[in-house]
Amino acid sequence: MIHQQNAELERPAEASSAVASDNGLRVMLIVNGVRSPVRIEPRVSLLDALRERLHLTGTKKGCDQGACGACTVLLDGERILSCLTLAIQCEGREITTIEGLALDGSLSPLQRAFITHDGFQCGYCTSGQICSAVGMLHEFDDGVPSAVTQDLASLSLEFSDEEIKERMSGNLCRCGAYVGICGAIRETHHAGATR
Amino acid sequence: MNNFTYTRASNTGEAIHLAGETGAGKFLGGGTNLVDLMRENVERPESLVDISRLPFGDIHENPDGSVTIGASVRNSAVAGNRTIRERFPVLSQAILFGASGQIRNMATVGGNIMQRTRCCYFYDHASQCNKRTPGAGCDAIHGFNRMHAILGASPSCIATHPSDMCVALAALDAVIEVEGRNGTRSIRFTDFHRLPGDTPHRETELQPGELITSVTIPKLDAGRRSVYRKVRDRSSYAFALVSVAALLELEDGTVKVARLALGGVAHKPWRAYPAEEILRGAPAREENFRRAAEATLAGAQGLSHNAFKIELAKRLISATLSELARKEDAR
Questions:
Q1: Nearest Cα to A57, choosing from A116, A117, A112, A123?
Q2: Integer Cα distance of B331 and A129 in angstroms
Q3: Which of A158, B33, B111, B117 has the fewest CB atoms below 10 angstroms from its CB?
Q4: B38 contacts in A (CB within 8 Å)?
Q5: Cβ-Cβ contacts under 8 Å, B96 against chain A
Q6: Which CATH number fits domain B5-52: 3.50.50.60, 3.30.43.10, 3.40.50.300, 3.30.70.20?
């Protein structure tokens, strides 16, 4: 059992079975390959831990209720919503945010494609769109079907705009940059630069 | 969100112990529903027991041909599983027609089964809701009830169960395995969720502190001829107005086996047994599919904004069965 007493709590052990209060618990998050200790209450979302404690503000808070996708990050390589994830649940797991996608200081192919295709306007949903697209392209490469996949039993999927739209439906863009977003994702897939 | 004690369970016994006899400790899986409800102060648990790292994370085939899915398997992993895709496509489809890619990666099978209604009056503290506060009344009945139930509702509650996955599992005759302080037991999927009656706050047959550990789908020869169809206000990432999970097996143009379950219409996944009886032995023709649909909706009651669902459900049942029959002919 990993109880909060054992979560590197700095308060006296006898007080730790109560609800965590003022000081919170020390939780080790691994963000973009960096071990990043944070002091948080169990109720702190991964989104708030990233933005308010680790000052990684690339991940955006849109609806804070799982409807818009702006807070999408990768957890052990899979896209998830950081607003509906408690940070303490992520202890010891690999978290990748938009800040972690660039390779050796240069933008990833998907990030460059978003610029080329004008895949944004105000930019607020963009980090969520890009993290989601990274996870989505991995899912496609792994043969995970979608609601528009015609033959579920088939192992080879056909990449199409219809597939992109269905698989990206969890990311809203109020500016309506969807055409550019689709273009950027399509180009990245066709260039084979999804990994 | 209220503060709470967080504990990560490392085995089932510990999780059940931590939940307590009264179930005061809430089990936390993917969090997609519970964390949302806690942020809205609809759920205010004093402690959370994190079960997401318990060893219920695999899908395996049993010697008798049935397939068991662990309760903490993620929805996306079920939908993408080869065996499920080949033998129970209706289940893959139902999951893929629900939520978004991100949420399917987070949500567990157990959590999907345990999710609560999306009725906006249930979420809104300014409204009366018998589910949130037993005896308070229901503001949905005379409110905006487009998304609400047309079958099995009561004067206390007209909420619907929001899951797509559960509609397929109801049609597949799945069985839920649970574990509690008094050991393990099995509950038929169709018996697991309750109709609201005058206790809409009691949503399942799960006893306080009991934990879902797995779901088993029996071997099914007709499994390959199964389909899930869903009608919603937008074509992706929306809850069902009406959905249908259907399985059909024909023999010389006659229905040998038909199974039908509906989503978006009731407080639980709605298995249409009377329709299945009508179809058994009947020629696989449009008029019989429509007769089965009429029987399913015979007791339906429309409210001010959702009466359209009655005819919609009939047409969807009919169209879905016709689609399956055509597929069968083409074999």
A1: A123
A2: 42
A3: A158
A4: 43
A5: 145-147, 149
A6: 3.30.43.10
In a domain, A195, yes or no: no
Of A1, A65, A85, the CB nearest to B7: A1
Contact flag B28-A152 (C-beta cutoff 8 Å)? no
Is A43–B2 a contact, with Cβ atoms under 8 angstroms apart?
yes
Distance between CA atoms of B16 and A191, rounded to whole angstroms? 50
Which domain CATH number covers A154? 1.10.150.120
In tens digits, chain B (331 residues) has pLDDT values of: 999 999 999 999 999 999 998 888 999 999 999 999 999 999 999 999 999 999 888 999 999 999 999 999 999 999 999 999 999 999 999 999 999 999 999 999 999 999 999 999 999 999 999 999 999 999 999 999 999 999 999 999 999 999 999 999 999 999 999 999 999 999 999 999 999 999 999 999 999 999 999 999 999 875 568 999 999 999 999 999 999 999 999 999 999 999 999 999 999 999 999 999 999 999 999 999 999 999 999 999 999 999 999 999 999 999 999 999 998 777 6
- Residue A166: what are its φ and ψ, rounded to 5°? -65, -45
The CATH class of B225-329 is alpha beta
pTM of the model: 0.95
Note whether B93 contacts A4, CB cutoff 8 Å: no
A8 and A95 in a single domain? The answer is yes
The residues facing B91 across adjacent strands are none
Closest residue in chain A to residue B86, using alpha carbons only: A153
Contact call for A86 and B80, based on CB within 8 A: no
Contact A132 B7 (CB under 8 A): no
Answer whether B300's CB lies under 8 Å from B148's CB: no
ipTM for the predicted complex comes to: 0.96
